[in-house]
Amino acid sequence: MTRSAFSALSLICTALYGSAAFADSTTETVKLTMDINQPSLFSADLKDNFKSSIDDRSATTTFDVLCSAGASAWLGLSRIDQACAINGAGNIKNPNNPSQTLPRISYSGGYTVVAKQDGFTDATTMLANYLRAGSAPAQNGSFKGDLILKPENPPSSAKQLGADLIKNLQQTAAGTTAVTYNTQIDSVRFDNFTVPDVGQRDSAACTWTGDAIFAYANNAWQMKLDVKCADKEFKIEGNMPLVDAPSGSDWQQEYDLNLVLPGAGGGDPFAAADPFAKVDGVTGVIKLKNSGRASPGGVFEHVHVDGELTGTGVPLELVRGYAEILAVLARTYFGA
Fold first, then answer.
1. How far apart, in whole angstroms, are the C-alpha atoms of residue 322 and residue 314?
2. What is the tens place of the pLDDT at every residue in 85-131?
3. Which of 1, 11, 120, 325 is the most exposed place for a label (fewest CB within 10 A)?
4. CA distance 124 to 114
5. Once rounded to an integer, what is the mean pLDDT over residues 129-147?
């Protein structure tokens, strides 16, 4: 090893590790880019590919997720398993010189959405193996917990979240409850779903429990989640509507994320994000540039995703963790 390489290694593995894990008053920014190709929309024999990059002040993480169609068989009368294979890498940055990086995590394995268990998904088969970096040892790790992805029979907590949304929409529709809405939802259940830390000494894994539903009533994801990062717990709730891009944009659609901490500093979890308000939580715009063919349901074969997430009053691990959830479960959030 050269003297310059050893110096870079020392800076990353000492100065980096000495930094504070959380700073509640800070604002953290995470950038998410993604390239999506979904040929299975038009041929079930083909596989869909979701390539993502997540970048922030302390790490860069990449994922390459390859998924089978997994929709239905026998003329739609029965479901089949959906399998997704994962490859990826995580590099940590020198805080004194972010251009200096070291490989720290190798991602592998994958997950299977089990049809016979109505979308049950074991997260522990997504592996995160840590490479040696300075005095930090190599070790085997993984995601943890369980998921239930788009079940035919959503859990009661997801149904209640949908009912609360419908009630709110009715109450705010010209002050009347006479308006009716589509009550169909797609749901994601997180059960102690743990996103691994990036491999720095003071970084922490975050564990997610709760529900996210895509409500057809307002074309938006509605979320109510408990997140624990190290010894700190956060209750976050809000929405992520899929809307048309502003006129003149070079992208066609966007997700407008508004995930807030209830109470002081938070906002209305059912309201659209106010671009001029500063609230505690995670906000951002995730731009979707669509191309190629579109399915009857309006899902495009090719999508380029370019997003920026901002966390206020929450740790970087939580903001990054949400971006990693979008990347690993890209077929759920961006696919058919």
1. 12
2. 999 999 999 888 989 999 999 999 999 999 999 999 999 999 999 99
3. 1
4. 14
5. 92
| Amino acid making up residue 330 | A
Summarised one tens digit per residue, pLDDT across range 162-190 is 999 999 888 887 665 567 889 999 999 99
Calculate the CA dihedral of residues 159, 165, 168, 174 and round it to 10 degrees.
-120
- 195 to 107, 123, 269: CA distances (angstroms): 12, 9, 24
Angstrom distance (rounded) from CA 179 to CA 175: 10
* Angstrom distance (rounded) from CA 32 to CA 163: 31
Q: How confident is the model at residue 78, as a pLDDT?
A: 57
**Cβ(238)–Cβ(259) under 8 Å?**
yes
> What pLDDT is stored for residue 10 in this prediction?
41
